[in-house]
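From the pipeline queue, job 12 of 40. The input is one protein chain; the requested action is below.

Action: predict structure.
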Amino acid sequence: MAKRKLEKSAANVATEAEPLTNHEASNGSSLDHPVSEDERDEESGADSEEEEDEEEQEHKSSEPPSKKHKSQLTAQDVQTARETAELFKSNIFKLQIDELVSEVKIKDSHVARIEKALHRLHHCISQVPATEQLTLEEAEKKINSKKLVIPFPDPKPTKVNYKFGYLPPEHVALVGSFGLKTGIASQHGQGIDISLVMPKSLLSPKDYLNYRALYKRSFYMAYLAEHLLSLTKKENLPVKMSYYFLNDDVLCPVIKLESIKTDNEEDLCFHKTKFTINLIVSLPFGVFDTKKLLPDKNCIRVQSDIEELPPTPYYNSSVVSMTTHDYYLKYLYRNKKSAEAFKDACTLGRLWLQQRGFGSSLNTGGFGHFEFAILLSALLNGGGNSGNKILLHGFSSYQLFKGAIKYLATMDLLTGYLSFSSDLDQSSASKYVPEAGFNTPTIFDKNIKLNILWKMTKSSYQALRSHAIHSFDLLNDVVYDRFDAMFLRRTGPDVLKYDLTFRLTIPEELHDSFGALEKITFVTFDNYIKHKIYIILKNALGERATSIEIINDKVNNLFSLLKRKPSTQHSDTYLIGIELNPDECDKIVTKGPNDTDEEAAAKFRSFWGSKASLRRFKDGTIQHCVVWSIENNEPVASTIIHYALGLHLHPTITQHLTSSVSKFNAKLPVPSAASSSGQGVTGAANFTLLKESFEELCKVMYNLELPLSVKSILPASPSLRNTSMLQPVPFAVSNPDFWNDLVLQFESSSRWPDEIKALEKTKTAFLLKVSETLNKESTYKCFLTKDDSIPYMEDITLMNVLTPGGYGFRFRVLSERDEILYLRAVSNAGAQKAMVQKVYLKFNQKYLGSVKHSRTISILATHHTYYSPVVRLFKQWLDSQVLLNHFNDELVELLAMKPFVDPAPHTVPNSVEKGFLQVLDFIATWNWKDDGLILDLAKRTDSAADELENKLSDKLTVRAYQVIQSNFETIRKNDPSAMKTQFFVGTRDDPSGILWSSDVTLPIASRLTALARAAMRMVKEQNIDDQTLKLIFTPALNDFDFHIQLRKSDIARSSGVVKTGGYKNLSGNYTSFPDDITSRYDLTAMLVEELNKAFGNMIIFSARRCAALYDGENIVCGVYLPNTGNKKFRVSLAMDVKPSNEKDEVSLNKESITDQIKLLGGDLIKAIRFRK
């Protein structure tokens, strides 16, 4: 199975492999001395000789070993397995890593092809003639404006007193991941970076000021490009040339070469390799004094009224990085040689970053393969607080990767920083310097005076660290296989990644705020506006948000040679993605400083404006604060964001800021109870009132004088675990979850009958006694009903209790003899064992499993506040698709629990939108035929929890996991095609995995998967708006053979749901029960029950459970079973048939069945419509 997944990963794993700028080794990578064809032949000959030697060794080793030799190999294998487990977490994990690395390896044929193209390109570069001592006017005339223009950065130079020129580059070398041999195959191709170092004679020591070096570099590049246009044609190297901003850096344009397919056999085309070539004009190493280019220095002089100009960190770092391409290649090459697993660790790091949307470019976070490789190198030479080594050279690739992830997760590079030296001659230990950071992500090279993370923002670093923390937890997981979540699955789309997503279109007026001082500080408006939005949101949300990401929707870095810059490099639309802190995000008060702190109070009032107020709290403190109200289904965090951006960014920001989170919240039915007003989607006031009523009933029951006293009353209903589709409202008897199941246990007694039928009659006698006592001595109303939920058991009785508060409870009695008698019946069943096992399974569901399930889910629902609204919305979606009546509530709740207990590669959802879509995404991607779902239904303990706390927790152990997995494998061995058992959902409470899914059939399971896939396809392809959401919750009735439209019934009021529209005075709650409680029941469920009894062997019937959500209109859909086609007539067919056109065959009499359905439904049926 792992191999199949890895084969699939080859197609999905790689997005565009970003070039590794600042880079790699001249050894074997230089283009100054191309390898001749003779040398290549000699090398290939040597390789073939080595291969022959290896084949001889393999042939020898394939001979049958002697007994002594065999025993030695076995001992060696054991030792190897032990070492592998230590180095790679497990043997399987090592195999997966090896398979993955081999899958993403670049094809040798592609490498050979591109190398030929690179040598031919190098020959072209060597033919470019020199020119120097040109003025700006002469330089511009030197370039043919009909072919290309000089890509000068803004502002374009006008009058300068320095000269321009072109001389052959000092050094031409492969840099980036291709030069370091750490590149990987990609669907979208890979960029190969070639560094051309400008001669020092063309630059002066002062050229780092005011763009001078960049202007000279731009002319050098344009002059080179103009000559390459003709030289590549001459040398039969057909390429398309364009300018390209490397890593989104507008100060660093490069020449991008893409192969053109031609019919000329002499042309060297490499389009099939999907490689592109980036010609990077580098500045010579050491040409500038890098101390003057530190991030806190100003290197762009502009006229301004202020005394001291602000620093220019982006500009300074960009200039320094242009001098280091060859230098860092040598540094990384040395580390690659010193650590054997360095290359594979870099591959793992690249894949991990790509799957989480990170790269070296500014718009992908500024942390890519190059930055990861530098981090590995620094940690191989230290990295601890005292310079101690974090990674050792003998580590495996997994250990190196895990060590780097742990460092990113545990070390704060904002408040502190990592200092290292890249000096190749004098090696000094890397060191983490705590509490002395620069308030910006920093890995500082003290030799070059460059911050490697200069392209990162606080926002992107926060997101990277959050991913590292979650990934480190996955790597420490000893129970589950986390390989897929780490390397094969992407974290997108955005609605699955963030709790809140906003689309912000920047108003045109904001561009006016980007003045000269802002330009020299941030270089581009994109950097400026991202920084400004982040500062506003960080101050506004505070502890409510754990991560804030701001990403431009569309970045255009590629532009024609005839343009100086792209017409629009950045879109005006930004994605704001926010991950919330569940402990803080829904608080309606933002607390500020105490009234005694005048300076902090002034800042607080300045930021919050008129919303700020002074209040006294219960503990006696007087604090400045802001109180928020919950309106229009908006989360508190969303309200804060709208207000803060409107106050500090643009007054009409609401017109430019859109989000779909409130649309999902609005889909949840609004309860009509007064207790629900003013509370958000996580409000549990109605559930709390029900639980209070349950506790009062328990007190009454415990005080009753009975032959056997009450031992326990255990809840077993969705409403008592906060998961019912409709919230409980007093006297809402039309609510499908009105009756709350309870399991009643009396004290132990040896006088319980030893036969099931007699036992049930004894229970009935007890319930009669309880019912009579309650009716006489309390205000509770009680009556008994029969229970037919367990097949062949006709003597089970339920006690129904109506409370004065308007709630309904349903008791069933469990004794200590029940399970023993059912198991005895199973063991004595003989030929009817399968049937009796089904009876026991139903007993287990109703009496044992539901109690355990309720206890577990109640705990988790309290721990995960957004679980309750997510599972309720998921049930509503299933009901809208006419599927809910085919699933147990418990099974639906377990499926919806998956993102909360095992969200990898995503994070635990803290919004209804994210949680609901993660559930759909899981179902859409779950291969239930080959993979069982094993859930660890335990509260997540803090990673810092001690060993004793972890041992005492209810976490799933390795042994328990193996038992459940073994049960799944046994089921699939007997049912490989998943015809009998589709969903396997194993937990600690249910190791069998089929307690709640045994009734699901193959058509229903396949239907659920297909609907989830269709919904997720729509979400990924379209923006989520009202129309999209409406389609997601609209059933595809044409997929059914027919559907029965039932007459409309006004049950919204008696269901406890606020009816949309209508008169307010008619939407109030009932204050008492009707004389006949069944008069307010929705009869749809009873109709479907009768239809299944009559035609269940021919038709699959589906119906909505809650008609109140659809204005009282309900439908029953039907699909004919495949086995109802033409067949030979026999007496035992058990279905309504008619003669067929075929000889001796009959077919289903659908017309007659339709008439019988109409007769059975009577006035309840409005019309029956058939598929066209």
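Job complete. Confidence is low (pLDDT under 50) at residues 1-72.
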